[in-house]
């Protein structure tokens, strides 16, 4: 894998490399077979100009970042992985997140492919093709979604930061399946202005990188805040492992990697306690009327569906239309139930610095098993629910989480998720730095 942002910036600052050379590497990676279908629009000339114009002393120093197709970029339409918005009016200004990355010296490499309208954790796109996971050149495997192209852009070496969004795991799922780092911050810390919404309650603007230290840098840029560094050793943190839900139905590779990771952390001095989180059992009842994403998604899409519904991915339209039946009192009941549930979860997690879980319970299956087609719809929706199960808990919690690769060299990528409630971002990142070293 190409060196991370920090190592490359050091090379720039010591004149061991320069932004023009690094951008040439990024553009070559973006054009390579490993990045097929990862970009919906490559901005080669613009990126080269921005790279040269940046200062090496800036946080991104002229290095490449990619942007998920649901973010506004001035002068371009914002299709969000669809065809029905392909000819929508061009954005007048960059999304706040895009503007902040550019202001930090980032060079915008291009717009990345995604699940249409961000409504799936699998990463399939029938309009623009599905980018294959980088982990297995012999068998095209799902990239994870919805930030599929963003993950491939980072894992392939094209981009140092892949800007995306996370509503139920859309950063952490592809990060886990491609063996990179994905950090979902507390949602309120990063503005969503200029990002096409899925769920205004759950949407989080965040990014994927190749290391935890790069995740800290990306978060500091996106949130316009400084992360309080944690200098304590791993033994200083109190970590929890949930007995319920998160470890249900793990495939053998994930189970082995998770247990091995816990063992290595314990050997490194980590204090790990198994706990019960009985509030998790209440989530199906709380979301029984469909949850936030279908209802809030339908509110945004209903007129567009009436005009252009035939142009939607049928699987995406099916999920959005589920929101049409939610009644106003059911939505208000959902808001109240979530608030009460968050309070119970926060009290249960308060003694701990972070919780450890598998990010997703499976490794990436072949694309062929869930490719578009009615015969595979059941398999697709089963896989989608399974991929979303663990990470979506954190979105419902209004929390923060990071996924780190924890597989052995001969295994498919597996993600280890560290998570906690809202505004514990700095603690989670501090623990993640120590966990990354130990693994």
Automatic annotation (TrEMBL):
Residue ranges of coiled coil: none
InterPro entries linked to this entry:
Amidase (IPR000120), Amidase_dom (IPR023631), AS_sf (IPR036928)
User: What Pfam family is a match, any one?
Assistant: Amidase
**What name appears for this protein in its UniProt entry?**
Amidase
Start and end residues of each Amidase domain: 24-429
Return the SUPFAM superfamilies for the record: Amidase signature (AS) enzymes
